[in-house]
Design brief:
It is a single chain. By secondary structure, the chain is an alpha/beta fold. The N and C termini lie far apart (about 30 Å). The radius of gyration is 15 Å and the shape is globular. It is about 20% helix and about 30% strand. The mean pLDDT is about 95. It has one domain: 2,3-Dihydroxybiphenyl 1,2-Dioxygenase, domain 1, CATH 3.10.180. It has a 4-stranded mixed beta sheet with strand order 1-4-3-2, covered by helices on one side. Strand 7 and strand 8 (about 115-120) form a beta hairpin.
């Protein structure tokens, strides 16, 4: 097998929360919304991308936010994101338990746990 890369990560969101997620992922994080294929558009949800990765937010009827499982996003300058999130009253939780990384956790607008990290000295 020749694994190439990770295509996308999917997170669950509650029914009807797409606009809230557009504000969080689009406005606060600055990710670009991408249209879903017509064959999947009727399922709800919303997709985002950056130059490095794609995130699919899929509607789940019996939604429960992921409090332990989470994606981790690597940034060049974590402090810029922390300042922007604070300006939008997003609560962040700094964690220094992973050697070689500066990082924090935050919940998205529907309660899913997200990790944001920066390599130290790199």
């Amino acid at each position: 097998m020749n694994w190439l890369s990770l295509d996308h990560v999917q997170l669950a969101i509650p029914v009807g929360s797409e606009d809230l997620c557009r504000t969080f992922y689009g406005t606060i994080l600055g990710w670009r919304e991408v249209p879903k294929p017509e064959s999947l558009a009727g399922r709800g949800g919303v997709w985002f991308c950056t130059e490095s990765f794609r995130i699919h937010l899929g509607v789940e009827k019996d939604f429960r936010p992921a409090k332990k499982a989470h994606p981790a996003f690597l940034l060049k300058n974590l402090d810029i994101l922390a300042e922007k999130m604070a300006a939008y009253d997003v609560i962040i939780e700094w964690d220094n338990n992973l050697e070689g990384y500066k990082r924090f956790y935050a919940d998205d607008v529907v309660g899913n746990r997200l990790e944001f990290m920066q390599k130290e000295n790199g």
